[in-house]
Here is the input.
Amino acid sequence: MTRFVLISDSTLSYEYRNFPLLDFLPCAPGKAIPERVYKFLKGPAPPAKPNGETVFAPYAIRKLEASLLTKFKREEIAVAHEDHLENFIKDDTEIIAVSTMDPLGIGPTTMSYYALFGGNLDAWVRRDWDKLMDRINVVRKGKKAKLIVGGPGVWEFTILRDEIEKYHYDYVFSGEADDIAPMLFDQIASGDIDKNVFRTGFVSYDENFKRVTINDPLFLSRGFSKAAYPRLEEIPRIVAPSMKGMVEVMRGCGVGCDFCEVTLRPLRYEPTENIVAELEINASAGITNGWLHSDEFFGYKHGNLFAPNEEALSELLTAVMNVKGIKTSNPTHGRVSIPAGYPEMMEKLSKILKTGPRNWIGIQTGVETGSDELAKKHMPNKTLPLRIGPDGSWLDIVWQGVYVETKNYWRPAFTLQVGQNEETEDDNWQTVEMINRLSNSYSEGGRPFEFTVTPLVNVPLGRIKSRSLNTNMLTKDMMAVYYASYRHLSKMATRDGFRDTDGNFLSRIGTGSLISGGGYLMMKYIEKRAAKMGVDIEKVKHYGVEHSREITSLSALARA
Here is the structure.
C-alpha cells in the first residue's frame, strides 16, 4: 500500500544537457522557444526504476522522503516518476505531495523574460506545471487522495490565489517541514488538523520587510507551538540519490540584503559527517559531482564581519573530494567579495577542488548593481569583509573578485537587478560600465574573464496579478543594462557553447549550435528593441571602456 506519493515539478528533474545555466531554460516564454528546441535542450527524460519510481529526485523531495521515513514504512512512501503516476496513485493512496520552484512562471528569472517579450503568463515552466497537474488530477479522479503542494515556489499562490482552486489543491504548505512532515501528513490524511501545531495561513512580509502572518484556510504553515524553523538535529539525511548530486551544507545566509527573504532565516551549518553521508548516497548511484547547496557558501561557519573561515571551508572541501566516487564539486551560491579579498584562500580551495581548463567551478552570485550608492543602500554587508571606499568602489571589488576567480578556473553566474527602490538612471549606467569593464578584461596568461550575467527586473505585484504583461516595464536605462548583459552573454555563448556541451558528437554539435546561435539571436533581438526605444546602441557598447586598454590588474582598472 502506497499511502504517500511524492512528486517533483518536472522542470527540476531534467539534466538540460549538463550545460551551465541551461537549467533556467523553462523560464523562457513558450512563444520565444519552439517546442522542438525546448525538448531537445531539456535532454532525455529522467530514468525510472522498474517499479516506476524515479531514480534521481530533486533534493527537496529527497528531504521530504527522509522525514516521512522517520515514522512510516518504506513501502508506504513512493517517489514517483511523472510518467508512472498510475503505478502508485490507487484507491487507498492518502496524499499526493508535489514540490515546486516556479509553478506559475512568476519567479524573478521568468519575469525578466516577460519584460522583453510581454504576453500572458505562458513560460515553459508554467506549461510543464499545467501538464503535470492535469496528469495528476486525471489519475486521482474518483480517489480519496488529497493533493498538497509545497516548496520554495508556493509564494506564487499567495499572489495568484485563484490558481489553487483551478488545480484542485487541498492544501498549500508554506515553510520548512523537515521535523513535522510525518505529523502533517497524518493530520491531513485524517482530516484532523491540530491548530496548535499548524496554522491556517502563511507567512509573508510587509512593505518594511517585517514578518507578518496572513490567515487563509487553503494554506498551512508551522503553528505557534513550534519553532519557526527546524533545528539542525531535526533535519534528517537523504536516503536516496538527489538530482545532480546536490547536498546541503547550510541553511540561511545572514548577510542582510534588504530585498531578500533568505537572510531572515536562521543560520544552520551541516556537520561534515552529514554532508559526506549524503554524498556517499549519491556516489553509490554513479553520481560523480558533489553539488554543495547553500545561500552563501563562503559564509560557512564564518568569522566576524563575515570573514571566511578558511579552515572550515578547506576541511569541508577536502572531505567532499575524499568521498569515494566523487571527482568534482562546486557550491551553488557565494559572494564575489571573498575571492576579491582572499586570493590565497581561493587558490588553496581551487587546488583541493582540482580546478583546471576542463574543470571550471560554477557559482551563482548576486552582484545586483554596478552602483556604489545602491550597493551601500540595499546590501551593505555583501561587500564584507571589504568595504566600499577604503577598499575601492563596488566595481573595483567585483573586478578583483572575477580576476581571482578566472585565474583559478571559477566561473561566476551573476544576477543583476533593475527597478530597485530609489534607483536612478545613473545607477543603471554604472551597471552598464561594470558589465563592459568585466567583459573586456583578462586574467593571468591573457585568459578572458569568465562570467555570465543575467538581468532581473522588479515587477510590481499589480502587473503580475493582471496576468498579461506588456513590454513597457523597462525604461531606456534599464534596457541599456539588458543589452549590455546579453551582448556579453552572446560572447560567452560563442566562446563556450561547444566547449562545455555534454553527450555524443551529434548531441554536442546540436547543443553547441543552439546555445551559440540562440545567444546571438537573443542579443540581436534586444538590440533591435533597445534601438526602437531610443537607447543609444553605440553608447552602450563602449560605455566605460572607450578610453581603456586591455585591463589585466586592479591598478590597470584604476587607470582605465
